[in-house]
Design goal:
Layout (H helix, E strand, L loop, with lengths): L7 E5 L3 H13 L3 E5 L2 H10 L4 E4 L8 H10 L6 E5 L4 H9 L4 E4 L4 H33 L8 H14 L5 E4 L6 H10 L8 E5 L5 H9 L16 H4 L4 E5 L6 H13 L1 E2 L8 E2 L3 E6 L3 H6 L5 H7 L2 E4 L10 H15 L6 E2 L1 H9 L5 H14 L5 E2 L41 H15 L4 H8 L3 H10 L9
Parallel strand pairs: 1-2, 1-3, 3-4, 4-5, 6-11, 6-12, 7-8, 8-11, 13-14
Antiparallel strand pairs: 9-10
Amino acid sequence: MDLLRKKVVLIADDDNTSRQIITHYVQKLGYTALTAEDGDECIQCISEQPIDVILLDINMPKKNGFEVMLYLKAHKITTPVIMVTASNDIPDAVKCIKLGALEYLTKPLNFERLELGMRNALAESSLKKEVQVMQKGLINKELFHSIIGKSAAIKQTLEQVRLVMDTELNVLIIGESGTGKELFAQAIHNGSKRKNGPFVSINCAAISNNLADSILFGHVKGSFTGAEKDHIGFFEQADQGTLFLDEIGDMDSEVQAKILRVLQERKIRRVGEKTEKNIDIRIISATNRDFAQAIKNNLFREDLYYRLEEFLLFLPPLRERPEDIPILAKHFLDEFSRANNIGPLQFNPEAIKILENYQWPGNIRELRNAVQRSAVTRKGNIIETLQTALIPGSTSASSTEKKLPETQEEFIPHDRNGNNTSFSLEEHERDAIIKAYKASNGNLTRTARMLGIGRATLYRKLDKFGLENLKTG
């Protein structure tokens, strides 16, 4: 589209006759001409629309040509500038070139030199844009090399990441378990001004209130029994960098209050110390919880939520990006082959169809587990059957355990006539948990492993679906 757009030349000159003459010539060459009578108007035009070349006079009211050039330099605007002025002063010409002007033309104008100057300026501008596009592509490839997919959903999410990464806003990432929240947090950090600083990750669900001060803010030797040496807490470790608060929704309410105070004051104090220390950190947090419900039930502080949620980023579940499933599956299969020094493996078409039609409640983590299990149990170099939590193959861990279903069909709900029935996502998840629980003979650790989720996540889902009795079953 940009190639089809007529090039725009901005003529900034306080002399009306000069503006008219140059405008007529610029239009005759096939360019679009815009005019400005003074430096302020010139800057306003530059800020409001794309300009390809600026023809700039030195002596103008409000802001002169030098001041406009300084503005361009300060705001990193690379639009090429040709000085068009009545001044024959050599120091003025030298100053303009030092400030970045490509040409210094004096009046009365030699229009052949002006045309050549504009062509050279446009050629240089196009080259700079091509380089910028290439650099952006290389940077994006480096930043997002671990984030795989081509779906519209993932592209939209990556665009949101690009918008926020270079800001100082705190980011709250919301997504289901297994969607790769930490990968996105790391990408935001790597693309930010803090990329040379530390990236420190904390599992908030694992922090108990009685240890929070020491873990988060550090302690000095002898401050309590067992404090045999100084300890730097997570917040101080992340100074000048990014602190990633994973599973923030599972944080103890008293720990929430401690973190809120630090975010408000930007100061920490180690246990046993009397003085506070300033810290400079950016917070990226992540959760799979419904914060509206948690706040309503007084499980999460509303004031802390708004500190964390300066920019909200939603990660789409795998079921909402089905076109990415074959790409991810191939990536995990190739990764497995390289790690285990195996020749190239591939899925047959039927296996791919099963992958695409399955809902993947455990998201990318579950898909990776499924691909790895399928690669281990394959026959030859073609994978024909899928070994996932809900598409398991025949296995028997011990003589006392129930034999697992051999095909996906045994895990898909059917009516009495043998036809597949459609379930809502919650019904599907609940049914999947019950079947995995029965298949593992009530072993919750194995149930979680089969589902491709963590044990803590399984416990939350048992509570969510009214299956608390399975915890002690």
